[in-house]
């Protein structure tokens, strides 16, 4: 059988349908819709069980009411605010809820937008920082060449994309054992008059740790006193911005800090909505240059738009508002707390095993990582353990840490709603069994294994 064709299960195939179908070319004739459904459904069987995917931050389950609401709104175009004015109004409800949750000075006046995900939200926030810097330089009669953005070397790849696509020099503050995340201690070496801003991560992808936003602000305050440079902060809260308000309400990281100009989050991560939905909120109108807002005549209406994408789904925005209504502050707190409890329980179980050292323990966002204790074994590594767990159905990625710590390999678990304490106990049992198998090896495995299991 050619690899270019898919065999159609004869149980589903109608008499008029061909026994095989092309993968890479459009067929001359179509097929029965039910047959086509079964072909696509069968093709996805090897994707694995999403509930056992502990690599992804992205929501993989919503309740039946959410699924019905999703189906009801498949056809809604978020950008078409003239045709779907109530969907546009619900987007504004969500924006104000988030601005209030993050302590904006005036939530009703904070500019915001939904996006396809946090990557688009970060692009828009980065562009706003660049435009603000450019406008200030132009007003002062200075050139606007060679802007730079300062961030930890542990940032998500979307920030590297932003700098590449929008011609901004990335300045990566290296992580180290002494400074495993951005804490402000080294900023003076990286910030100058061409710095458009500093990115602080609330929930580092690699470990789940919170970067010290208040410490970063304090360092920037000192730089302003010493050198006269007024540098804003963007908080990449892709995960933590929907955790900290509920589990660490005393932590000051958001618009309570005057240098925080903008915050993004992923509605499709700990916002608990299906992919893809992101949000970005600015402190006030001064933080978002008017030059970034387009006013478009579309289908008979005048429509302000702030996005890199144009047409995009409105359904996820409705799902976000549904969850805000369904859960409220108490419900979000309960769900996030349960995920945190499972993460801390799992990390304690890993820490009790003599082979491992924890890198983080899940007490910030419900994410933690561990490393193989130095010198423990020459016969296996964390990539081998990841492969063994994958054979048991569990996706638990292993990967090297970012630049300047790349010699350190870690393994990470992301706990999402749906990973119960019972499942966590089952996972710990499987990890212990597979570690025992690897420990019993009397020689190294035939070749180093490298899995592509890491996912942001």
From TrEMBL:
Residue intervals passing through the bilayer: none
Cofactors: pyridoxal 5'-phosphate
Enzyme class: lyase
EC number(s) recorded for this UniProt protein: 4.1.1.15
Keywords: Decarboxylase, Lyase, Pyridoxal phosphate
Gene3D superfamilies: 3.90.1150.160, 4.10.280.50, Type I PLP-dependent aspartate aminotransferase-like (Major domain)
Signal peptide: none
Catalytic reaction list: L-glutamate + H(+) = 4-aminobutanoate + CO2
InterPro entries noted in UniProt: Glutamate_decarboxylase (IPR010107), PyrdxlP-dep_de-COase (IPR002129), PyrdxlP-dep_Trfase (IPR015424), PyrdxlP-dep_Trfase_major (IPR015421)
Pfam families reported in the protein's UniProt record: Pyridoxal_deC
Similarity remark: Belongs to the group II decarboxylase family.
Protein name in the entry: Glutamate decarboxylase
Organism: Leucobacter iarius
């Amino acid at each position: 059988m050619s690899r270019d064709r898919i065999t159609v299960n004869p149980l589903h195939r109608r008499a008029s349908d061909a026994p095989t179908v092309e993968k890479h070319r459009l067929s001359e004739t179509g097929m029965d819709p039910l047959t086509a459904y079964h072909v696509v459904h069968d093709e996805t069987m090897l994707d694995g069980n999403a509930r056992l995917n502990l690599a992804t931050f992205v929501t993989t389950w919503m309740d039946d009411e959410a699924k019905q609401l999703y189906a009801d709104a498949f056809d809604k175009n978020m950008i078409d605010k003239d045709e779907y004015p109530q969907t546009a109004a619900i987007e504004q409800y969500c924006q104000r809820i988030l601005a209030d949750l993050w302590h904006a000075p005036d939530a009703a006046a904070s500019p915001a937008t939904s996006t396809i995900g946090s990557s688009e939200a970060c692009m828009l926030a980065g562009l706003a920082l660049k435009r603000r810097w450019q406008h200030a330089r132009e007003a002062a009669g200075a050139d606007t060449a060679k802007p730079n953005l300062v961030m930890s070397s542990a940032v998500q790849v979307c920030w590297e994309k932003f700098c590449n696509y929008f011609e901004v020099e990335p300045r990566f503050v290296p992580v180290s054992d002494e400074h495993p995340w951005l804490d402000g201690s080294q900023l003076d070496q990286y910030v100058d008059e061409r710095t458009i801003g500093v990115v602080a991560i609330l929930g580092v992808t690699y470990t789940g740790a919170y970067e010290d936003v208040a410490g970063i602000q304090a360092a920037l305050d000192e730089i302003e006193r010493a050198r006269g440079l007024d540098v804003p902060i963007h908080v990449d809260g892709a995960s933590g911005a929907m955790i900290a308000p509920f589990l660490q309400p005393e932590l000051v990281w958001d618009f309570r800090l005057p240098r925080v100009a903008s915050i993004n989050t992923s509605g499709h991560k700990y916002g608990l909505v299906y992919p893809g939905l992101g949000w970005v909120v600015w402190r006030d109108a001064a933080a978002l240059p008017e030059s970034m807002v387009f006013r478009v005549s579309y289908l008979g209406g005048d429509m302000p738009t702030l996005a890199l994408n144009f047409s995009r789904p409105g359904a996820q925005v409705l799902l976000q508002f549904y969850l805000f209504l369904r859960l409220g502050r108490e419900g979000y707190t309960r769900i996030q707390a349960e995920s945190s409890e499972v993460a801390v329980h799992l990390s304690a179980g890993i820490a009790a095993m003599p082979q491992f050292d924890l890198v983080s323990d899940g007490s910030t966002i419900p994410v933690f990582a561990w490393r193989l204790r130095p010198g423990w074994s020459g016969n296996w590594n964390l990539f081998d353990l990841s492969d063994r767990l994958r054979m048991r159905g569990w996706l638990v990625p292993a990967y090297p840490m970012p630049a300047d710590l790349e010699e350190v390999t870690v393994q990470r678990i992301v706990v999402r709603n749906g990973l119960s304490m019972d499942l966590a106990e089952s996972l710990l049992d499987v990890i212990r069994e597979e570690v025992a198998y690897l420990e019993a090896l009397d020689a190294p495995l035939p070749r180093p294994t490298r899995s592509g299991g890491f996912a942001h």
